[in-house]
Design goal:
about 190 residues; alpha+beta; eight-stranded antiparallel beta barrel; disordered N terminus
């Protein structure tokens, strides 16, 4: 009985620290304790659905993505770094919910396909300080693409799922891309 009560108090303390602070600032011992609680108490897995837009701007004065390396082969092996704003709506001035940070690289000779290694970093409300990481193939010329969600932090610890990407607006000449994102993840 005492072990069960202690585990419940620990669980409530962890949940309240995440809920009240928004930003997870736990040290290694607290994280280890959280993992022990999962395996011991069989915490229920949650499913979360998210919808937002990110704005990738490679030209102009407010650039959010830059080429950091380029091969000597046309359009193959171009490596870019991004810090793209994420918003509730497709307008850049709509409510900001975070940033998409990471790298993407052209990785095909046949068409302009991207390899993405990026993290959706949330800065708004209950997800503040939490993140979801994606890694995979993104054939961005296609209407819809699925990129695997391979992990997360904060409220999305041990996340796994799928991010579906859709080009809402795409103009290579202007260097402006607005991508609609729908994410479904399982996490604890």
């Amino acid at each position: 009985m005492k072990k069960s009560t202690s585990a419940s108090i620990l669980l409530l303390t962890l949940i309240s620290s995440i809920t009240l602070n928004g930003v997870v600032s736990e040290g290694p011992k607290e994280v280890e304790s959280w993992f022990e609680t999962i395996s011991r108490d069989k915490l229920p897995e949650k499913m979360t659905k998210l919808h937002f837009y990110f704005h990738d701007l490679s030209k102009g004065k407010n650039v959010t993505a830059v080429v950091v390396a380029r091969s000597n082969v046309t359009s193959f092996g171009v490596l870019a770094s991004a810090d793209d704003p994420m918003t509730v709506g497709p307008e850049l001035m709509s409510k900001r919910v975070g940033y998409l940070k990471g790298l993407y690289m052209t990785a095909s000779f046949e068409e302009v396909d991207l390899l993405m290694a990026m993290t959706f970093v949330f800065t708004d409300e209950i997800y503040n300080g939490s993140s979801l990481s994606v890694m995979g193939h993104n054939p961005h010329q296609h209407l819809y693409r699925e990129v695997p969600v391979v992990g997360g932090s904060g409220r999305f610890r041990l996340a796994r799922g799928v991010a579906t990407l859709h080009n809402y607006f795409h103009n290579l000449t202007m260097g402006k891309f607005i991508v609609e994102v729908d994410i479904v993840v399982f996490h604890y």
